[in-house]
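pasting for the record
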Amino acid sequence: MEDPAAVPALRRFTWEEIGQRTGRGPPPQERWLVIERKVYDISHFYRRHPGGSRVIGHYAGQDATDPFIAFHLDKALVKKYMSPLLIGELAPDQPSFEPSKNKKLVEDFRELRATVEKMGLLKPNRTFFILYLCHILVLDVAAWLTIWYFGASTVPFLFSAVLLGTVQAQAGWLQHDFGHLSVFSKSRWNHWVHKFVIGHLKGAPASWWNHLHFQHHAKPNCFRKDPDVNMHPLFFALGKTLSVELGVQKKKFMPYNHQHKYFFIIGPPALVPLYFQWYIFYFVVQRKQWVDLAWMLTFYIRFFLTYLPLLGVKGILGLHLLVRFIESNWFVWITQMNHIPMHIDYDKNVDWFSTQLQATCNVHQSLFNDWFSGHLNFQIEHHLFPTMPRHNYWKVAPLVKSLCAKHGIEYQCKPLLTAFADIVHSLKDSGDLWLDAYLHK
């Protein structure tokens, strides 16, 4: 039996030492992070991280306890695989997270997380998700029956396109549930069904969604870390700080002072049919994600086999483009209403609660809003607890509001149409800030 005294003691580190290991600067570009006071060297592991190299790399040099807890279901199993990466722990005189973070707020949020677990709010109601999948399948069949029974004239063609556009939007919300591990207790079960929903029902790769979306959740609205704001500065000037910075640097890739107008051209109508639709194929081939590609092809094979006899080649291509156009408008307005009007800046390494609250807002609850947005009208709760089943968001919302009130943090919640309008208003404001800085600073 090994003598415990012979086991070498863990090395002790300070936050100053850890903060220097961000992966930036001259070689060796080490990457360290902290989880529950343990220090891990991810310099080589981060490229093999199952959730993607960037999502874990974004926390290099920082405390990653809260995102680690938020993203993983079987934490004991994950820690087992992390043990070879353990190089030490925080020195006894060091706080459990960076001294710059709000100690009381961090502690209160972790207490809230424990309360959520005790209340069972992380446990899914699988009947909800089965019925949700069934309603998508019913709409999908109804779209085909519409053209099969009524023919391919204008009215049934357009009605079928609306039904199929609804299928794509709603399947998008459902794959989001499986992607966030919100339906099954085992991660691999969620991953399997995720591939079916996003691949066979939508024709998109699960690996692509994982690569982008987990980064967004890890560092929402943080430029160069959240891919959802990568449209800055090539197409849009986003956020007050970044827009002024762009103007001061005299950079002009687009006439940003008119971005609230051309958003209606290159934003909602174009994102899916003119970009996502084609980029996803490049993504899976370039990364050799052959399983995802196979699932994607089953969508296109099914679509063409079922509609080609009814519509012909030109008709089926027109239907597919129209469906993607409907899906794109639906997707962009819903996903951007919670984030573009909010704070956008570089990563300031603030606590998990503040990170999510400053980058997200909610939309009023109603049966329609819940369905139309896939419950992303509860974006704040979703970002704080990304594995929580969406049917429980409304239950945790009062607790989140209470914590916000206690710490003087604004909890934004607005009507749906106001949220849509705020996208345009925020683009106009940031465009005006850019122009003023470009001309006068």
